[in-house]
Amino acid sequence: MDVNTAESECGCGDGFNRRTPFAGTSYLQWVCPEISRAAVCFIFLVCTVFSISPTLAETPGDYFNFKFWKLTLPLDSNQDGKVDEISVRALSDYSHPEFFHLDEQRNLIFTAPNKAKTTSGSSNTRSELRQMLRGRNTRIGTHDPKNNFSLRAHKGYRRFATVGGQMEATLKVLHVARNAANETKKPAYSVVVGQIHADKDQDVINEGKGFGWGNEPIKIYYKNGLAMTQGLFSGPMREIFPEKTQTEPI
Predict the structure, then answer these.
(1) DSSP assignment, residue 96?
(2) How many CB atoms lie within 10 A of CB 139?
(3) What are the tens digits of pLDDT across the range 134-154?
(4) What does the DSSP assignment read for 106-169?
(5) 10 phi and psi, to 5 degrees?
């Protein structure tokens, strides 16, 4: 594995309706009950390459329920200048031998190299699940309220697909980059493993209170052997949520 690649692995629980018991493994696993309730939710994970036969291979969709998720990859295979996305419809039987696959214990593996194709609004590569509450109903736009969730405090919360949500997870980051162009920057030697992202809201921006720009209410990342959060809750997760968090240096 290239030292410029970040790695992690997850095994998800009831939220993904996994159909086999979770096998013990030396990797850390991510268990996600009720993940379908957290709307604009992204899962970033990374990992190792595993070569499999295209005719006999099991795919992640054989063990995880992706009916409300799409996948973004750090690729531009059709050379259209955009990152590749795998739709909700296609994800059920999709696998990629480098960036999205099962390991021998049928844990779900993601990989994101330091340098690869990125989305237009970011300089960071990603192998990422994005929740799509619309499911396969593409008549509903990605940023439409009916494809996203709201907090109860939002004055227009009734327009959204659901109010609030919950995600619980256990995961292990196997490898992070050992090289960085600027090691003084906060993201150096780290990997983001999950976030809730807000959409830009021009009405809120116009109120002039500094809100509505679409920043992440919460971002979870792994750095220096610790799971960290940034946003509404900032700092080591084991200090903010001690009963929920167990971390070990890699």
Answers:
(1) B
(2) 8
(3) 999 999 999 999 999 988 888
(4) --EEEEEESSS---TT-SS---EEEE-TTTT-TTS-TTSGGGSEE-TTSTTGGGSSEE------
(5) -140, 150
What is the CB-side half-sphere exposure of residue 69 using CA atoms within 13 A?
A: 25
Pair 110, 96: CB distance under 8 Å: no
Note the pLDDT tens digit of each residue in 222-233.
887 777 777 666
Q: Six-digit token pair at 200?
A: 């830009």
Tokens of 197: 């992202």
Q: Which residue has the tokens 């679409």?
A: 214
| pLDDT tens figures, 150-202 | 888 888 899 999 998 887 766 888 888 888 888 888 778 888 888 888 877 78
CB distance 177 to 3 below 8 Å = yes
Backbone angles phi and psi of 159, in degrees to 5:
-80, -10
Distance (Å, whole) CA 165 – CA 163: 7
Cα 45 to the center of its chain, rounded Å = 6
Q: Are 41 and 165 in contact (CB under 8 A)?
A: yes
Beta pairing partners, 218 = 196, 231
On whether the pTM is more than 0.90, the answer is no
d(CA 108, CA 119): 23
**What is the C-alpha R_g of the chain?**
18
Cα gap 95→101, rounded to integer Å: 5
Task: Give the Cβ contact number of residue 115 at 10 Å.
Answer: 12
